[in-house]
Every structure is written in structure tokens, then in C-alpha cells.
Amino acid sequence: MVGKPVNKMYVIKRDGRQEQVHLDKITSRIQKLCYGLNMEFVDPLSITLKVINGLYPGVTTVELDTLAAETAATMTTDHPDYATLAARIDHHPDYATLAARIEVSNLHKETKKQFTDVIEALYHMVNEKTGLKTPMISDKHYKIIMENADRLNSCIIYDRDFSYNYFGFKTLERSYLLRINGKTVERPQHMLMRVAVGIHGEDIDAAIETYNYLSEKYFTHASPTLFSAATPRPQLSSCFLLMMPDDSIEGIFNCLSQCAYISKSAGGIGVNVHNIRAKGTYIAGTNGVSNGLVPMLRVFNNTARYVDQGGNKRPGAFAIYLEPWHADVLDFLNLKKNTGIEEARARDLFYALWIPDLFMRRVEANGVWSLMCPHQCPGLPDCWGEKFEKLYEKYESEKRYVTQIPAQQLWRAIIASQVETGTPYMLYKDACNRKSNQQNLGTIRSSNLCTEIVEYTSKDEIAVCNLASIAVNMFVKPDRKTYDFEGLKNVTKIVTRNLNKIIDVNYYPVPESKTSNMRHRPIGIGIQGLADAFILLRMPYDSEEARQLNLQIFETLYYGALEASCELAEIEGPYSTYEGCPVSKGILQYDMWNVTPTDLWDWSALKAKIAKHGVRNSLLLAPMPTASTAQILGNNEAFEPYTSNIYTRRVLSGEFQVVNHHLLRDLTDRGLWDDNMKNQIIANCGSIQNIPGIPDDIKSIYKTVWEISNKVIINQAADRGAFIDQSQSLNLHVEKPSYGVLTSMHFYGWKKGLKTGMYYLRTKPAAKPIQFTVDKSKLMVSNKDDAKVNGPITENGNYTNGDVHSDDEETKAKKLATLVCSRENPGNCDMCGA
């Protein structure tokens, strides 16, 4: 039967011809892509039989491949029960690899092979709607590529496309590979070579080195770099930090205009509004009073909605920073809430507090807190530490405040907002300034969209940062017992040189951003796959061994980046504002934390070299969220633990469960994986801790973030923080948040010296047995059964259920819907995505 055509069924070939569908041809094509897989567990015929059920007369071969790939992907987690007579091994993790191979093979059939042929087509692209030539490649890079055609073409290894897993490849195809009139023309290897040449230009040796490390998945540049390298407008930067130039119509709308231009060019934005006068403040020019922050921020909210990042690629993303002494802070904390009048909400913005130590001490002592207007109490945003405290207390003694409230009343409002919306982010102003290598420039006034960039801004300078993340799991040695720190250092040096070059080749959407980047030359190196590295080395995330490896990985990153930056300074000179910075005085980041490094590297020799030559970059490390690029490379995000051991992926043909691939292989190797085990993990919400029959060593390695103490998470953040000269995107997860738990968590992080105390607060839904989703915004969804965690907090710290009292299903559904963040992916920052 297999050799016979399927009755009355035909397929349309790539050249337009019609041909009857033959089962053996489908099976043969799948069979060819099974090389290296465990054929004891993979059955191409079973995929073919499932594919046949989805066919219709006139299906194209492209659609046929897509259906086969999705079918293989759905077979990733199910495994047969060996005890049954059927004993047919239908499903296995190798199906995920096969699914990706089918999709990649399909793309290869649909695209040109030679890199230069693809570049030629992109350069001569004509828009089919306008008939105008709209090149996707810049003149400069087209010329370089064509002049080095033979060498570049010969260096590309297309088989590396087959190393992506199914979802990594689909992410690339959906958002990263360049298209001509809607049709994808790039292969992943083409994109990586384009990025490498886009960074290095005529330095072909460096471009080929970068290509090889990118294609072997040792590191990745950030999403904007992958999008735009070598294009006519190569806006390769991820993060932009702005301040309001003036508290005036001109200043506010100038800032708004800058935000629009940056958002148009796919930049994520952090803007501080500390200096905007509070509601009710007198305006001399009009003899009226100010409306305060809320109406202004609603304008910024609508600008973010209107000006998306790069033409409908993703919504605009603005984070608004405010110091907690501002008189409008209570209104500010309500802006993202799901209830309340629309005129007092701006739900599409993201909110952050820039917190001085004085406020934390007042909360701790149950003291009084004075709310002030920056117009009546000028200078507060411009100083930090002792100078800030003296000025603040001077204004208090002069009674220049708008009002006074108990500090803990404001603290309760902060906690209530975090429980309901996951924000505001918590950043500590004094730690950010005290431990900054840019403190010689002036007071740092805010961070960025994702809380890992801490850079100086002024009226004349918009801070910018270019990002890349290193896959630290790639440096676990084959024996799975030791770690290759030397290899990690060498890759870090390559990444440092790359990011330094991006500063010079970048397109800057506003001139103030170029001014800043050229003067201070900051870069941001992050990581992904730390949890994967721990698993490969059989280290529980909360073990002392993991804590030590985390520290030494970041010590190595900092050492390698400093060494590379010093070597660049030896050739090109230090950055222009180097003199007077802490590094110029021999003070490195760990010195500011009063930490002694391990004996892994010779810090004394490096300090001597820096004293002689300086460094080329003011800032180097900034571990960012890696939502998109970690998915592309198949790693867990950043330095985070796994949030679950099972989740759902959605594809056109439906949705299906995916299990942590490390766990799947471990359970399969021990003969423990079957349908029953999968269903038990689902029933346990992605946890394996209470499943009988799983050995304790496996349980300890595969704890989810919900099963790891936040003390462990914060301790590791502080350990690595001593080697991070910017900051880190630190999410905190609390299954059942309460006033006491969150207060304890925040104060612990503050006292440990963190710069970023919290990016997002993630809370766990308790209404469903499991939340099958990769959309992290839904981690904040809850209902009345979850200890009423999303209700308002009363003065005594207890939770109430707000205005929702009905228990009927419709009300529950509406309540659940309102709790989902109103943006598409607020937690998955593609900007820093790196």
C-alpha cells in the first residue's frame, strides 16, 4: 500500500506541476532527514500516516513539509508504554530535531544557496506594490560582499541550519530572516554572515570569525542587530535612556519626539520624569496650575501604541522612571492597574521606581515620608547619597513639601501595584550611582526598559547600549564535570570587540544618542543558558557548587571584557571621558562591592595593564532578558531557573505540550518516560518534586523557580553583581505573594547591595492545574482562589477582593481576562532580547 498513490489526492510541486501524492515519497523524504537520530524511537511511516490525514487536493509541497514538521513536533513528548502488547515506539524527543530538519529542508528548497545570490536579490529588491527599488542591503556592504564573494560563500556551512530546534527555527523564520515582498529569502546562515559583515565591514577575517562563533551558537547579538545589520539604516542598538530636557511644553514634546524616532527604529526606551512638576503646581506663564504626570504619560502611552518598533514588528515599549518623593507618585502607581477610570490609566507603558536609600530607611523605621514637587524643590534628581539626603531634609525642614504621609503607606501602595500588575520595577538610585564607572559624568537618573542598563543621561545626551548574550552552557566540557573558563574568556573578548565596532557603524535615530555613545562607548554583555549549564554539570540550581560557578562565570566575563577593552585602548586610546572614572583610579566593580575575586584570574596584572593603557569602553556587562534569542538558540533565558518542566507551544495546526528537553532525556535514559509520567508532570503543574518513582538526584536538579528560595536567587544576583558594572534584569517569582513576603524580599535585595532589586514580579496562577503558555505575561494572571493576590491591600497588609464579589463563571472569566497584561508580550523584551 505504501508505494501506491493516495486515491484522488494530488500535490502541487514547487515548479507548479501537479502530481499524485505517494506515501513512499513522503516517507522517503522524512527518512533522509533522520540521520543521526535514534531510529529505535523514530518512525517516519507513523509521521506519514498522520500527515496524510491532513491533506487536501491541491496541497503544495511547501504546505506538505510544514504539516510534516508540525506533526513531528507534536510527537516530541509522548512515549509509549513498554508494558503494552502494542509496544510501538511512536514518539521520542528526537522528533523535535526531525521537525526542525523538515522545516529547514523546506526553506533550503525555497531559497537560493549562495550567500552572494541572496544579497544580490536583497540589494536589487523592487517593491511589488510601488514598483520602486527598495534595497534591503546598504551600498557599502553590498560592495564589500561582492568583492569578497568567493571567500564568504565558501565559508558558510549550511548544515549548521539543521542544528536549530523546531521553535528556534520558526522564531527566526517569523521575525528575523529577511523577506522580499513577503517571501523569506534568507537562510539562518545567510543572516549570520550578513550580521558578521555588517559589524566588521572590510575586516573579512574578523567577519568570518564572528560568523563561525554565531553559527556554532556560542553567542548571539541582540535582536535589533540581527534585524538590521548591513541594511541601509543599521540601527543595531537595543536600549535608549532619556531624560526630560525641561519641565515645559517644548521640553516635554521634544522628549516625546525623540521617543517616537527611537521607537520607529526598533529601540526600547527608558525615560525619567522626576523633574516634571506635580499636579496642582502653579504655572506662571499661563497663570494656571499643572495637571501633573498622568495626562502627560497618557500622551506617551498613545505614542508607544502608534509608533511601533520597526513597522509593525512589535509595539513601542517605554519604561517610565520616577523617584518616590514626587508628589504624583501614588497616581503613578495606579497607571497600569486594570480597574479604575480610563482617564487615570496608561496601561501600555511600563513603570519603574528609582529609589533612594533614604526612602528604604524611612519605611524600615516606620517614619514619615515627604512628597515634593520638583518645581518647588529643585535639584533632587541631580544628586545622590549624602548630598541628596541633605537637600531632601533641608526641604523638609523648610516645609516645602506638598504633603507628608507614613512611608509605609506608600510602600503598601507599591506592593499592591506589584501584586496586581507585576510592576513597578525596583531600582536603587544610590547603589546604581555609587557603583557606576560613569559616576564622574554626573548623577545617573534612570535605567532602561529592562532594568539592566545604568548609564548617564543629560539634556544633550541620550544614553545608548548595544547588547549581545553568550551561551554559557556551551562551555561545559564533554566530560560534563568541568567548565572551560578559558574558552569563555576568549569568546567574551570577541563579543567585546564586536560590540565596540557596532558603536562606530551604528545608525543613530537622534543625534543626542550618537553624542553619548561616541563619548562613553558603553556596551552590554549578558548571558543565556545558565540553568542549562547547571543541569549539564548535574548541579542543583540552589547548590553551593552552582553558586560558585555562577560567580566564576561572571568573574570570567568581566575579566575578559576588561582585557579586550584594554587591548582596544592600547590601539585606539581610551574613551574620551575616561579620566576621573573609577577604573582610571584602579577601582574596578568588585572593589566597589568590597569583594575579593577568586584566584581564577590574575587581576593584579590586568589592573597594571589598565593603569598603563586605560579601557576603550566605560561599561561592559549588563545581563539582559534574552526572551527571543534564547528561544532561537534553544537555551533557557538569561540566568533564570526553569519556570516549569512542561509548557505549551502553539502552531497553526493547534497546540501541544513540550517538556524540558534535559529532563526528557534523563527520564528516557532511565526508562521512566511514558504517557503516565507526562500526565503526572502536567497534573503537578510542571513540577516533578512530588512524583513517586523519580530519583532524588533528578528531583534536585530539576527544581523550578517556584521551588527555589528567593534568597538563593538574590544571593546569586549579589554574587554576580560584584562583576557587573551595569545591572541585571532580575525577575522574582512568588507563588503566593503577600505584603510580608514581598517586603522581606525587597529589603533583603536592597541590603545585599543590588542595583536592580526587581524587574518583574511573577506570581503563579492557582486557578488551573497548569498554565500552558510561553507568554510570561500570563504568569501574573490569577483569580480569587490564589489567596486573592490580585485584590487591593488594606492598611493592615491583608488582601481583599475589591469590587468583584460574584462567583459565576462569566464574572470569573472577565476578571481573569482583565488581569492579563494589555500588551502582547510585556515580559518578553525583544529589545534586549537580546
TrEMBL record:
EC identifiers of the protein: 1.17.4.1
The keyword Magnesium appears for this protein: no
Catalytic activity: a 2'-deoxyribonucleoside 5'-diphosphate + [thioredoxin]-disulfide + H2O = a ribonucleoside 5'-diphosphate + [thioredoxin]-dithiol
Superkingdom field: Eukaryota
Keywords: Allosteric enzyme, ATP-binding, Deoxyribonucleotide synthesis, Disulfide bond, Nucleotide-binding, Oxidoreductase
Domain (ATP-cone) ranges: 9-113
Database matches in PROSITE patterns: ATP_CONE, RIBORED_LARGE
GO cellular component terms attached to this protein's record: ribonucleoside-diphosphate reductase complex
Signal peptide: none
Gene3D superfamilies found in the cross-reference section: 3.20.70.20
Xref: InterPro entries: ATP-cone_dom (IPR005144), NrdE_NrdA_C (IPR013346), RNR_lg_C (IPR000788), RNR_lsu_N (IPR013509), RNR_R1-su_N (IPR008926), Rrm1 (IPR039718)
Disordered as annotated region, ranges: 786-807
Any GO molecular function: ATP binding
GO biological process: deoxyribonucleotide biosynthetic process
Start-end of Polar residues biased regions: 793-803
Role according to the record: Provides the precursors necessary for DNA synthesis. Catalyzes the biosynthesis of deoxyribonucleotides from the corresponding ribonucleotides.
Family from the record: Belongs to the ribonucleoside diphosphate reductase large chain family.
Protein name: Ribonucleoside-diphosphate reductase
